[in-house]
Amino acid sequence: MSDVDAIVVGAGVVGLAVARELALSGRSVIVLEQAEGVGTETSSRNSEVIHAGLYYPTGSLKARFCVDGKALLYAFCESHHVPHRRCGKLVVATDEVELAAVEAIRRKGEANGCDDLTMITAGAALAMEPALSCVGALWSPSTGIIDSHAYMLALQGDAEEAGAAFAFHTPFLRADATGNAIVVETGGAEPMRITTGALVNCGGLHASSVAAATEGLRTDQVPETLYAKGNYFVLTGRAPFSRLIYPAPHTHGLGVHLTIDLGGQARFGPDVEWVDAISYEVDPARGEGFDAAIRKYWPGLPENALAPGYSGIRPKIAGPHDAAPDFRIDGPGEHGVPGLVNLYGIESPGLTASLALAAEVVRRLG
To answer: Out of the domains of life, which is the source (predicted)?
Structure first.
């Protein structure tokens, strides 16, 4: 007999959602987290956007779980009084070539199940946001913003109320999945050896390391996790915008977009900087590239108004010259190890998709 029905590695937003879903299904759950609290890495270092599901390839896990997760997330925020705002987003084109790209985004979004998208004229866009410069835009009214930390605390509260236990300052060391139960060893001040019927790897930046330390899983079944750092700059004054502003997407990303937090602080980013190690310092020199990109759609950006803000790191399972990868969820059907689910490359829209991803994990465990 196992000590516990399920162990979740990682207390980021997806790990929390998975722990909650498992606990609500009646399973006993322990969450292992090496940090001092929830969401200290990727989950707390992002744009805090509730995404609509516009950009992802139709039929992909990202598209499916973003659209499904958005509905679940708005309902959760309402029922749990998590601060959020359905502010909407404009994807703007500054020339005719970009206008065609934005129109393509509309078609993709509708194919993904976004049924509220509207192409609007430059005049209509400027009526909404007079400081803009564009030749047309895509209006996505169901895009929003959220207090990500409040959301994670609500997930943790639900999980604990349903019986889940959290072990902070408790790093995962290794697991043996070759027997009838999975044996997990942890470090920290009070090392443990626990047997479990299910192990869910929500390690984020460390997911590949967790999988590689799981005996019973072949090495060729573990992808390499690469680090893509996204830097953000903040506006030193008040921005004349009440909605999110995204430029037309380009080959290697969505461009420098403008988001606003629930307190009204405008922030710009992220850019993409491939790094070998986890470091969150923001180089002020990168602000020059931000300034030029922003002025394409906001020519009135005041001089010297940008200041280094913060950065986050996304776990990538494909390199800078590869096509953007989909979420990867490897359950027993993929690797043949009973009771084991590994999640790799869970980056944006991971926060939006978190509740839908959790339901999928529980489904794959059976």
So the answer is: Bacteria
d(C-alpha 329, C-alpha 165), whole Å = 24
Instruction: Quickly list DSSP for 12-64.
Output: SHHHHHHHHHHHHTT--EEEE-SSSSS--SGGGSS--EE--S-SSPTTSHHHH
pLDDT of residue 249: 83
Does 253 score more than 70 pLDDT? Answer: no
Please give the model's pTM, rounded to 2 decimal places: 0.97
| Helix, coil or strand: residue 109 | helix
Within 10 angstroms of residue 264's Cβ, the number of other Cβ atoms is 10
Q: Around Cβ 279, how many Cβ atoms within 10 Å?
A: 11
Domains in the chain: ranges and CATH? 4-45+149-223+324-365 (3.50.50.60), 89-141+226-316 (3.30.9.10)
Peptide bond between residue 270 and the one before it cis (omega within 30 degrees of 0): yes
Contact 143/50 with Cβ under 8 angstroms? yes
